[in-house]
Amino acid sequence: MSCLAALGSLAEIRICSVEKGDPTHGIPHGPLASVYYSLAKISGRANEILDLALTHVQLAIELNRDDFANHIAVRASILLQMGRPDAALTDYRRVVELRKDRGGTAYGEALSQCGYALLKTGQKQRGVTQMEEGLELLKSGQPSGFQVRAMRKLAEGYARSWKFSAALDLDAEAYDLALTIGAHDQIHTVERLARRLRGQPSG
After folding, report:
1. What is the DSSP string of 52-65?
2. Distance (Å, whole) CA 64 – CA 150
3. Distance (Å, rounded) from C-alpha 61 to C-alpha 101?
4. Dihedral sign, CA of 38, 39, 44, 50?
5. Please, what is the Cα angle at 25 between 39 and 12, to 5 degrees?
6. Distance between CA atoms of 185 and 179, rounded to whole angstroms?
7. What's the rounded Cα separation, in Å, for the pair 77 and 55?
8. Cβ(30)–Cβ(40) under 8 Å?
9. At what angle do helices 145-160 and 124-139 cross, to 10 degrees?
């Protein structure tokens, strides 16, 4: 909430000192979309907050082309959270194409997210294969929260493919990595998946 408050204050300051030719009027639509998306995942009123996130990311895409691929990726994540996997998959595929030439961990993250969307649309094998490719690229860089998230999503893919032992092993590896690098935002979701895999209440 403090992050959202800070962004709101920043938007007000920028509006007061807006320059001619600034199409965004100084409003940080991209960061606001990301914050609302994060809040929606822990809020009891997720739909309303996701609508706000989608509104801001749409404006970011329309008004600021500098961070186009990242904005499209945020929109895809919001759409997936809203229960619109087909629309999310379209956006994620676009991000894969936009980051393909760049390669490296950015491309790996795009592959992982796209693979997860494939999984959500019922294309399990293609999704798992793409998530595996993405994780390998992410592992080539520095350990990060993105890598933890990719491992957790691939573990879910293994579970949906009836590979429960592989799913548990990968989820445990993701948990250890999250602790090592201090990715506290990922620890709870990794633990929750482990409980689900073991048939325990998710809490």
Report:
1. HHHHHHHHHHHH--
2. 28
3. 21
4. negative
5. 60
6. 10
7. 13
8. no
9. 150
> Hey, what are 188's tokens?
């709870």
* Nearest-angstrom CA–CA distance, 116 and 89: 9
What's the whole-model pTM score? Answer: 0.81
Per the CB < 8 A criterion, the answer to whether 151 and 114 are in contact is no
Identify the DSSP state of 202.
Answer: -
Dihedral (Cα; 40, 46, 51, 54), 10-degree rounding: 30
Tokens for 93, please give them: 């595929």
- Biggest CA–CA distance in the chain, Å, is 59
Looking at per-residue pLDDT, the higher value among 175 and 65 belongs to 175
Domains of the chain, residue spans: 1-81
Q: Which residue do the tokens 């329309």 mark? A: 62
pLDDT tens, residue by residue, 79-105: 999 999 999 999 999 999 999 998 999
